[in-house]
Amino acid sequence: MQVVLRFMMGMLLIGQPLGYADTDREKERLTLLAEQLSQVMATAQRIQQEEAEEQYPRLEYAALLDDLARVRQGIRDYVNRVMDTTRQLEPVGGHYLGSANDDREDQ
To answer: Nearest CA to 64 among 89, 102, 97, 15?
Structure first.
């Protein structure tokens, strides 16, 4: 899971400038990155469905998927020049351990 978190942090750093994707090369790379995020999200959704039957979820997949979607949308907005510098940017949550896990760790 730390790999996903590192990936997300790297993605956030890409989205930080208030400028736009100025070159075709940058647009291509960021578009590819957004597509790869979609693939990561699809994998996380499959795992979430498979783990739904477990008594104690190991990860808050909904929170992870929300954060990944937020990062992906930020990249898409940047590439498509939709970025509104007046909008309030929402930080990613970064907390993916479920309450059931918290209870088990205390025991």
So the answer is: 97
- H-helix or E-strand spanning residue 13: helix 2-15
Q: Domain range spanning residue 44? A: 2-84+94-106
Query: Whole-prediction pTM value?
Result: 0.64
Taking alpha carbons only, the member of 70, 87, 67, 72 closest to residue 30 is: 72
As a whole number of angstroms, the distance between CA 65 and CA 68 comes to 5
Q: Is there a domain that residue 89 lies in?
A: no
Cβ atoms < 10 Å from Cβ of 50: 9
Encode pLDDT of 73-106 as tens digits.
Answer: 989 988 887 666 666 777 888 888 876 544 444 4
- Using left for φ > 0, alpha for ψ between -120 and 50, and beta otherwise, residue 81 falls in left
